[in-house]
Design goal:
globular; Glutaredoxin; alpha+beta; binds glutathione
Length: about 210
């Protein structure tokens, strides 16, 4: 683990505790690939302004692997599976569930984490005078409504695709974990709650969640 700015040739993830950068870290940990982590205070654009020189967006994750530079948490998981040939954690394009797998990967951030970001912003990131309880309530409800597809899908299933754990579970599982941190898990269905507990029991998840704090 490193806490300096870039000095490594290993795949490196810039991370904040419990942020979306948990997705690629969790994938790397599941894969057993040697990697480096740079842990930043949240939000880094405020508390570590020099980070903007590395990632102009100021967001985490930021990911570097050789000449590859990436900023999208689910996309990085996808890259890792393909780049490191880990079919055991992904689904090949010839598989009948390939489309479903890709859909969950994209769904995880664009559909599920998006409303959670609005909740985060208007509960924690904005100064008290700019907080918007109405936005928090509305986007919280929106997040729960957006779980409908997952709720139906998890009936009778342990994992999203191919009856086994893949990075689609990491991507969607993070959104459920983040929702739990935001106080939404009481509104999860029993199946989704059991799924989240199953994912959170994985050693790779607990390692990443607990090891990289600042
Ligand atoms: N779509 C990107 C979003 C990245 C993102 O917005 N990350 C949040 C943390 S969960 C962040 O860095 N927020 C701080 C900010 O916007 O300044 C992804 O999936 O990684």
């Amino acid at each position: 683990m490193t806490n300096t700015l870039l000095t490594t040739t290993k795949p490196t993830v810039w991370h904040c505790h419990d942020a979306r950068s948990l997705r690629p870290l969790w994938a790397l940990e599941e894969m057993g690939v040697d990697y480096d982590v740079v842990v930043l205070p949240f939000p880094p654009r405020v508390f570590q302004k020099e980070y903007l020189g590395i990632n102009a967006l100021g967001t985490v994750p930021y990911f570097v692997d050789g000449d590859v530079h990436m900023t999208e948490s689910s996309g990085i998981c996808h890259y890792l599976v393909e780049r490191y040939g880990r079919d055991d954690l992904g689904i090949q394009s010839t598989h009948r569930e390939f489309g479903d797998y890709l859909n969950w990967l994209y769904h995880s951030d664009a559909t599920l984490t998006f409303p959670q970001t609005i909740v985060l912003r208007y509960t924690q990131l904005e100064p008290p005078e700019r907080r918007l309880p109405q936005a928090v309530e509305d986007y919280g409800k929106w997040f729960i409504a957006r779980l409908r597809r997952l709720n139906a899908h998890m009936i009778g299933r342990e994992y999203l695709c191919d009856e086994r754990f893949t990075i689609a579970d990491i991507a969607v599982g993070y959104a459920l974990y983040f929702g739990e941190l935001q106080g939404f898990s009481e509104r999860y269905t029993d199946e989704v709650m059991a799924y989240l507990q199953r994912l959170k029991a994985r050693p790779a998840f607990t390692t990443c969640r607990d090891r990289y704090q600042r």
